[in-house]
Amino acid sequence: MAAFERILVTGGAGFVGGHLCAALAKAYPQAARAILLRPGECGRTDAFTTAVADLVDETAIDALIARLRPDLVVHLAGQASIGQALHAAELTWRVNFHGSFALGAAVARHCPTATFLFASTAAAYGASFRDGVLNEDAPLRPVDVYSRSKVAAESALADLLGPNGRLIVARPVNHSGPGQRNRNFALASFAAQIAAIETGRAAPVIKVGDLSRARDFLDVRDVIDAYMRLIENSRDLPASVSIFNIASGTAYRMEALLERLRRKSKAQLDIEVDPALLRPGGSDLASAACDASKITDATGWRPRHDIDDMLQALLVDAREAEAQAAQASS
To answer: Is the pTM of this model over 0.90?
Structure first.
């Protein structure tokens, strides 16, 4: 296993970041570990010290990297919701591209041999999904501002870090599971609405967008396992820039996933399409799934949680959040 002495995580206060920080603290207990937070952002963890700076503030990020000189950077921070990105193009580009550029440039200046894991997205393949299940050689044909900003960040980081350091670009498919409580993500929204209906705090109607599309989904715990395996095997990867899909290879229709959640519900409920949740034509694709053979060959990673494990964990967590909300309002 690769040994690291100074670890920096961006986006550690988020859904995926919370899981990953716990895994890193367990795997590297002797390392100096820091989590990057925006000014005013909450998300402190006892296992990490807090470094405060705005990712798009190039001067602050440069000073931070010069001080910390991490030998492992895990870059999770960004505008993560495709739906939100459609209505906030400028912010999405500032965070996903400019923030990544500032971080990559600072690392290249002050700790050029560091290992840098960038959480990109399988959405980078975009229109290429019309050709079927894709591996890492598929053309990048992004169809929305979110994926375009991620593709641009991938290219910039490869140019900045590739010659001397070790850049790992991870392209995960959609992932959900325990801890995802942001209603801007479809499955988390479904689970939260079901939990509210079960307690009687909401009418027995789930508001949805387009349920006809199909997506490759992973449990967040499997995504974290993939990230950790890539980090642990980083020194053995054959290239200075390595790209890996993180996926199950199977696309599930959103309608079928909602039905699975519905069968786990303790309440009777109806489904209603909300026009506000429908995306503009052309920005969505009928089906998207990726081949993850490359990461399996390199690290032995395979998903350990099936789709029902993920949905059950998501619903249990949503019920806990609903119980906390009900208690707080009583």
So the answer is: yes
